[in-house]
Every structure is written in structure tokens, then in C-alpha cells.
Amino acid sequence: MTDTSQRSRPLRVLAAMSGGVDSAVAAARAAEAGHDVTGVHLALSANPQSFRTGARGCCTIEDSRDARRAADVIGIPFYVWDLADRFREDVVEDFVAEYEAGRTPNPCLRCNEKIKFAALLDKALALGFDAVCTGHYAQVILREDGTRELHRASDMAKDQSYVLGVLDDRQLAHAMFPLGDTVTTKEEIRAEAERRGLAVAKKPDSHDICFIADGDTQGFLANRLGRAEGDIVDESGTKVGTHEGAYGFTIGQRKGLRIGTPAADGKPRYVLDISPVDNTVTVGPAAALDVTALTAIKPRWCGAAPVGPGTYTAQLRAHGGETEVTAELVDGELRVHFTEPVRGVAPGQAIVLYDGTRVVGSATIATTARREAATA
């Protein structure tokens, strides 16, 4: 197998430049490899001042200026493309709707699927580009039979393959990740940026959700969905507190519950279930979070769909570890059983399956089964 981050022939490459150091170095490496590179910054808000300020986000006016300056230093053409309407519909509105339904979405994964490798790629191909280049840490491997596979980055500490698990064969065929095969620290990437004269070398990494300006997810949802007081109950159904909107909670949450009645055993309680129908949040002990199995819907495969049951490792959150599972596709749903129980698994999250370092595919968690009972 060979890594396709450095293609054998020059390509017309569209480099998505967020204004951060990773995407700038990725674009510079693609240009240095001999490709015909054009930089593009995605304007994802009709009012970019409402997004994160300073260096914390990837959607501000400052970020677009940083991206333009980096493109000038690299010596490549640069454009800003307005995808604000598409971003609002496919990412922001989806995020709000998922929370309203009692689920916990991952907006970064949805952005990669719908914006960077759907809307952006489609436009790039229509304009005659061969590939889209990003600063993600992952690898696209070209096999001898001509098929492509998505693999983890060489440096597991920076691996971002989880949020790319939604990419299909067509998208992988036009994806380029110049940082994925590099076993370097972030400090070394910054040093490389500084050697290249890129002003973003010392710019802090972005964090949290770009479209929530102050980082207050619960406040953002309250403004969109309105406050709706409801009950917090224990496993027996006894009321132990109140809340101002069930959408403000996630499965496994411990902090911010504001429960007036302590547990009989004196131990902390966690969110076990969220019911948007009756606006109720159920809490209980940590042991009640143990999930032994789940079903997931809307599977997307980085290659052919698996046939029959198989043993894999699974990742359940962007910065989480791996856990061993058996999985099988049944009537379009992914049925997953964990070798050892796991905690904090919530409907709406993505599960990504791996075969070694290869990404098999991803799906959206619909229901979970706990050690003693099944919970939707």
C-alpha cells in the first residue's frame, strides 16, 4: 500500500484554509510537492462577527484574513467562498434539531460530511479541481487494486480520522491530507510554519463549537428553543429537581444538575436518560450508565459495506479511546455489542468502526442497551 498524501502526478488541488496553522502547512506542503494549489476560505456565517473572536475559532473575519496572508506567503491564488446558507441548514439547524429530540450530535463530523467533503468537493470538481486538501491528521491509502482506504494518522496523539469516518469512496478518491503521514508534534508543525514564514505559526488551536460565540451551548439552545421547565427524576420516577430545558443535558453528565435532594448512598448522580416527549431528565448512579450494546442508523462506509458479523475496535467520541466490539449490519442498521461495558454513550453520537488503523465506516447511535435493561 502507498500513501496518497503525496500524489505521483501534479494535480489541481483546492486547499481548504481555515486560517489556522494546520491547514496553512497542509497547503504549503501540497504546493511544495508540485501540485497546482488554490486556497479557499469558507465563509460559514452571514454575520461572522457573531462567531468566535480572536484566534479561538475558524469562522471569523480575522481567520479569513489569516488564511489570505498564508496563501500570499505560499504564493497561491486565494478565494473566499460563501457557504453560509448551506452551513446553517446542514450543520447549525441539524445541531439544534438533534438536541431538541434528546440526542447529542457532533457538528464537526456533520460539517466534514456536508460542507467540506460534499458542498466544497462538488464545487471543486465542477471547477476542474482533482482533489480537496485539508489540514486533518489522517491518511488515505491507495491499494494495489486501485481502491482507497482511510487510515488513522501516523501520530495517534493527533489522529482525526473519527470526524472523517463519514467519507465515502467517491470523497476519499478526491481527498488529500498532507499532515497525516507525519509523526511530528504540534510544536514541530508550528516550527515548520515559522520556517515557511507563515504568521499563523503561533496562533492557538480552535476549540469547542465554532458557531456558538461564547461557548455557552445551553444558552445558545435556550435562545433557539426557548426555556421549558421540567422535572429531574431518579430511576424510580421520584422528582429530585427541576430544569429549564431537557435539551441542556447530555447522557453521562454530572455537573450542573442542580439536584436539591441528595442520593441515598451519598454518591454523585449522572444523567441516564433524556425524554423530550415529557421534558423529563432521569438521573442515577454511575453504574447505571454501563452500555453493553447499541444500534446505529445511517451507516456510511469508507469502502464496501461489511458482510456478516465481524470483530472491530470502535471509537465513540472525537478524543476518546478504542474499545473492542462485534458488529453486524442487519436490515440497514448497525448492531454493535461491546466486549466490556462502556459509559457515556448517547443517542446522536457517532460510532466509528476500525479494522486495525483502517476506518471501516461510521453510523449514528439510535438506541443503547444497558447492563440490566434496554434504554432508548
From TrEMBL:
Write down the position(s) of the site called Interaction with tRNA.
136, 349
Ranges for region Interaction with tRNA: 158-160
Q: Which family does it belong to?
A: Belongs to the MnmA/TRMU family.
The organism's taxonomy opens as: Bacteria, Bacillati, Actinomycetota, Actinomycetes, Kitasatosporales
Q: Is Transmembrane helix given among the entry's keywords?
A: no
Q: Where in the cell is it found?
A: Cytoplasm
Q: Which molecular function term from Gene Ontology is one that the record holds?
A: tRNA-uridine 2-sulfurtransferase activity
Indicate the segments forming the tRNA-specific 2-thiouridylase MnmA-like C-terminal domain, all copies: 292-365
Q: Which Pfam families match?
A: tRNA_Me_trans, tRNA_Me_trans_C, tRNA_Me_trans_M
Q: Does the keyword DNA-binding apply?
A: no
Keywords tagged on the record: ATP-binding, Cytoplasm, Disulfide bond, Nucleotide-binding, RNA-binding, Transferase, tRNA processing, tRNA-binding
- Entry annotation: catalytic residues: 111, 210
Give the tRNA-specific 2-thiouridylase MnmA-like central domain ranges: 219-284
Catalytic reaction annotation: S-sulfanyl-L-cysteinyl-[protein] + uridine(34) in tRNA + AH2 + ATP = 2-thiouridine(34) in tRNA + L-cysteinyl-[protein] + A + AMP + diphosphate + H(+)
Its Enzyme Commission number(s) read: 2.8.1.13
Q: Kindly give the InterPro entries that the UniProt entry links to this protein.
A: MnmA-like (IPR004506), MnmA-like_C (IPR046885), MnmA-like_central (IPR046884), MnmA-like_central_sf (IPR023382), Rossmann-like_a/b/a_fold (IPR014729)
The record's function comment reads:
Catalyzes the 2-thiolation of uridine at the wobble position (U34) of tRNA, leading to the formation of s(2)U34.
Kindly list the positions annotated as binding ATP.
16-23, 42, 135
Q: What parts of the sequence cross the membrane?
A: none
Q: What is this protein called?
A: tRNA-specific 2-thiouridylase MnmA
Q: What class of enzyme is it?
A: transferase
| Sections of the chain in a coiled coil | none
